[in-house]
Design brief:
The chain has 332 residues and is α+β, with helices and mostly antiparallel strands. The protein is built from eleven helices and 13 strands. It has helices at 5-8, 10-21, 67-85, 104-118, 174-183, 192-199, 205-211, 225-236, 251-260, 264-270, 286-296; strands spanning 28-30, 37-39, 47-55, 88-98, 124-132, 138-146, 165-169, 217-220, 239-243, 277-281, 300-307, 312-315, 321-322. Strand 4 (88-98), helix 4 and strand 5 form a beta-alpha-beta unit. The two termini are 19 Å apart.
Amino acid sequence: MKRFIGDIGEHALIKRLTSSFVQKSKQIRCGVGDDGAIIASHKGDPFVMTTDMLLEKRHFRPCWTTWREIGKKSIEVNLSDLAAMGAWPRYALLSLGLPLKTSLRDVEDFYRGASDALRPYRATVIGGDTNASPGGWVISVTMIGDFPKSRKKAPLRNRAKAFDRLYVSGHLGESALGLYCLEKNIKGSFCRPFIKRHLCPKARVLLGRALTPHIHAMIDLSDGLVADLGHILQESRKGAWVWREALPFSLRFIKGTRRLRQNKWTLGLSGGEDYELLFTASRNKDKDIKRIAKAHRISLTPIGEVRPEGGLKILNGQGRAIRLQCGGFSHF
């Protein structure tokens, strides 16, 4: 019986392919399965590489935004992967599949947006490819960064320890609420900050670098908290408790969900594209975490605990496990 990729899902497909066809090398310190690959350098700092693909109408719709914003977001989502590895951005490879009737101005605006995202890190585009697309735009970005050789361990997904605290940066759910407003064509000034969070994310590169010496495992929230935490737990072979009442929501988000009659817990647990950092750290690192939060003027909220086993449990205010009604984003 013929099987299709939709039958097994994105992550099962990746695992199936890499277990069969990917070769191991001593130079590869971290390969497939994390936010980026770490490649040993003969003399300098190790390289960290990550790649992402965006498809028109699947990941973005030009009618919702500008090409400059699309260019910027295309880079930011890759920068977020480097942030989760504690790496510093250096170079980008940018490839585009374009319909033949694409406006030259649209392409130039896209590159302006990409340059806007790279400029704060003095990173630059060093190459790529272009091709004709029979459908909409196809965007492929590969980011290359470096990881300080002096820091012996990157915060890989498989390094969570039992009884670590779980932390998340910033606020959850706002991007998902912004997507809801766009999909339902909801107008109003109260929607603007949520729509901006969705269309114009900002990677936590500086924060990721600051956290790395003090933590064990880290991931950026692209597919939703439940799905992305699941990756850490699977790779680390651990369980976790998440305290639902501790999830960090902004006041405007709470008001927005009430006004639009959306479930804040569902958006906070499964809403994708927050691009915040989820990480684990020993309990004795609490002071360091608070110091970093203050220095970067961002909230770093403890939301749960890594457990030796038992899968993922969401606990309500009474400490009772509640059934998950949501998962996270998958491409297939």
